[in-house]
Design a protein that fits this description.
Order of helices and strands of chain A: HHHEE
Strand order of the largest sheet of chain A: 1-2
Low-confidence stretches of chain B: none
Distance between the termini of chain A: 42 Å
Order of helices and strands of chain B: HHHEHEHEHEHEEHEHEHHHHEHHEEH
Strand content of chain B: 5-15%
CATH architecture of one domain in chain B: Alpha-Beta Complex
Distance between the termini of chain B: 15 Å
Strand order of the largest sheet of chain B: 1-3-2-4-6-5-10-11-9-7-8
Oligomer: heterodimer
Number of strands of chain B: 11
Low-confidence stretches of chain A: none
Number of helices of chain A: 3
Mean pLDDT of chain A: 93
Radius of gyration of chain A: 23 Å
CATH topology of one domain in chain B: Amidase signature (AS) enzymes
Number of helices of chain B: 16
Helix content of chain B: 25-40%
Radius of gyration of chain B: 21 Å
Helix content of chain A: 25-40%
Shape of chain B: globular
CATH superfamily of one domain in chain B: Amidase signature (AS) domain
CATH class of one domain in chain B: Alpha Beta
Chain lengths: ~100, ~500
């Protein structure tokens, strides 16, 4: 499988990543180098092999469904690039 | 002053308890050394004032007889661990001004035990790299240089600031994180010890996420004993990380005693790779002889899917990264690009300007392998390969207690030497990445020097949650190797 310029543009859009037009071609070449190398996984027979879901045999713990933290609105806002009171400010979304 | 900073963590701890030195005295020596070592670029944020204040508070506790496990001991923290009130960047422009309002569990454990924070160490951006060259804050230089050369070498990565800081005596020990080798590889190429614990041993809460099913925090130290001391405090079950395990944390330092008589050491034949330098193979054989001489039994084992580990990793890790890094959108925290007209443009520009080249590459790989039509061919297949790789280890551990392998395919390389071809850089982790995919503990121990005077390490791999046996075997390698070398302090003029 090979990745072309249009594919890079499409996945960059999916990833919400602005990739300049001049970078699309070189990026396609870099990704192809990596994907060609990864192709070797195709030679392994994985018939009947379960996909890994957890690397450590462990049951996820249960806890009581209760509030343990909160009322941190000020702390949440201190790193906001733009905010007003306890609201994050973004460009207009709804006309 | 220089003998203060060249102490091991254990020696410093004992000296503080014996009251022959104060934490302030020790901390001041390190703060001075860090200032002189700025040419190495090992720290993104120095925290000298905070360190001295923490040391003074520690000295007060010592006077009152309240002595924690790491009381008064100055440490360096990889800038991937969130530290309350101290900037945490992940070496990325996108988090360049991020000041966490909370503390990571691992660092909280360290401060609760009385440790002192010297500063935040440099790393590859979001821990993605093997040479510390992808940092938005510039590369770190390895304290080691080849004999008869002034060329700067990389300190390994991604925990390159931590490895350089430990090797240059800028801290007693440092924290690192290891997703594919990011503790063990930098420790190996700087002649120091690096331990990646079993997945789940240390809490991941408050560590900037890269690949959540692979990331694990661990210590980078001067000796195996120091790694044992650090791990005991770093490890804990944490309600804030559901993957941290509810198992007792033993006193690893005490469990170092007892030797390795009868220990079965596996040598995986697939780790002998074509084109590896002869010095690596020779050191590996020597390591096996050292362990045999101390009473271990050497057995040959097979890990047949080894060669698929790196390609598997370069699907799984970017897939998880693309998902984890979706949170950086220029809205709630982090860098926001100026001049966006709508919300989509705000996301795209902030991320396009905020992430560096390698991070963008991995986000795109991850997005691609998770996208409709490719999920089964790539991601699902990689997760099956991961099961096979883990099964290889389970079978090998029926025949042995630990595995011995080289740590890296070669010594530290030149700055800029491997940046042109991503795959060539990825191959740095060929011996370490299998361990992350299988969730196992691994440690690299300095074992010798190349002909031109650069350190090389050996790696030991243990059974899940059996760090105690792993550390005991590592100490046996350390004792036999008797690696006493330190780099010449060329940066300190």
């Amino acid at each position: 499988m090979s990745v072309d310029k249009d594919t890079v543009r499409r996945i960059a859009k999916l990833a919400r990543l602005a990739v300049p037009e001049t970078r699309l071609e070189p990026m396609a070449a870099e990704l192809n180098g990596i994907f060609q190398w990864v192709e070797m996984l195709g030679e392994v027979n994985v018939e009947g092999v379960p996909a890994m879901t957890s690397v450590v045999a462990q049951k996820l713990k249960w806890r009581k469904d209760e509030v343990t933290d909160g009322a941190q609105a000020d702390a949440l806002m201190i790193n906001a690039p733009e905010g007003e009171d306890h609201f994050f400010v973004v460009p207009k979304v709804v006309e | 002053m220089s003998d203060l900073i060249s102490m091991t963590l254990a020696e410093a701890r004992d000296a503080i308890r014996a009251k022959t030195i104060s934490s302030r005295e020790l901390t001041a020596a390190f703060v001075g050394a860090i200032e002189k070592a700025r040419p190495l670029n090992a720290f993104i944020t120095e925290a000298g004032e905070k360190a001295l204040a923490m040391a003074e508070a520690s000295d007060k506790r010592i006077a009152e007889g309240k002595i924690g496990a790491l009381e008064g001991l100055p440490l360096a923290i990889k800038d991937l661990f969130c530290t309350k009130g101290t900037r945490t960047t992940a070496a990325s422009k996108i988090l360049g001004n991020f000041v966490p309002p909370y503390e990571s569990t691992v660092t909280q454990n360290l401060w609760d035990a009385g440790a002192v924070m010297l500063g935040k160490t440099n790393l590859d951006e979001f821990a993605m790299g093997s040479s510390n060259e992808t940092s938005a804050f510039g590369p770190v230089f390895n304290p080691w240089r080849a004999s008869n050369s002034n060329a700067n070498l990389v300190p390994g990565g991604s925990s390159g600031g931590s490895s350089a800081a430990v090797a240059a005596d800028l801290c007693l020990a440092a924290t690192g994180t290891d997703t594919g080798g990011s503790i063990r590889q930098p420790a190996a190429v700087t002649g120091r010890v690096g331990l990646k614990p079993t997945y789940g041993r240390c809490s991941r809460f408050g560590i900037v996420a890269f690949a959540s099913s692979l990331d694990q925090a661990g210590p980078m130290t001067k000796t195996v004993k120091d790694a044992a001391i650090m791990l005991r405090t770093m490890a804990s079950m944490d309600p804030k990380d559901s993957t941290s395990v509810d198992l007792p944390v033993p006193d690893y330092e005490k469990l170092l005693e007892g030797g390795i008589k009868g220990l079965r050491v596996g040598i995986p034949k697939e780790y002998r790779i074509d084109g590896a330098p002869a010095e690596i193979d020779a050191l590996w054989s020597k390591g096996a002889e050292w362990l045999k001489a101390q009473g271990a039994e050497i057995v040959e084992v097979s890990l047949p899917h080894t060669k698929y580990a790196l390609p598997t990793y370069y699907i799984v890790a970017p897939a998880e990264a693309s998902s984890n890094l979706a949170r950086y959108d220029g809205v709630k925290f982090g860098y926001r690009a100026p001049g966006a007209h709508d919300i989509t443009e705000l996301y795209e520009k902030s991320r396009g300007e905020g992430f560096g080249a390698e991070v963008q590459r991995r986000i795109l790989i991850g997005t691609y392998v998770l996208s409709a039509g490719y999920y089964d061919a790539y991601y699902s297949r990689a997760q099956k390969l991961r099961s096979l790789i883990k099964r290889d280890f389970e079978r090998a551990f029926e025949l042995c207690d630990v595995l011995l392998t080289p740590a890296t395919p070669g010594p530290a390389f030149g700055v800029g030497a491997k940046t042109a071809d991503p795959v060539e850089m990825y191959l740095q982790d060929v011996f370490t990445v299998t361990v992350n995919l299988a969730g196992l503990p691994g440690i690299s121990v300095p074992a010798g020097l190349t002909a031109n005077g650069l350190p090389l390490g050996l790696q030991l791999i243990g059974k899940a949650f059996d760090e105690a046996t792993l550390l005991r075997a590592a100490q046996a390698v350390e004792t036999a190797a008797d690696f006493k070398h330190s780099p010449a302090k060329w940066w300190s003029v």
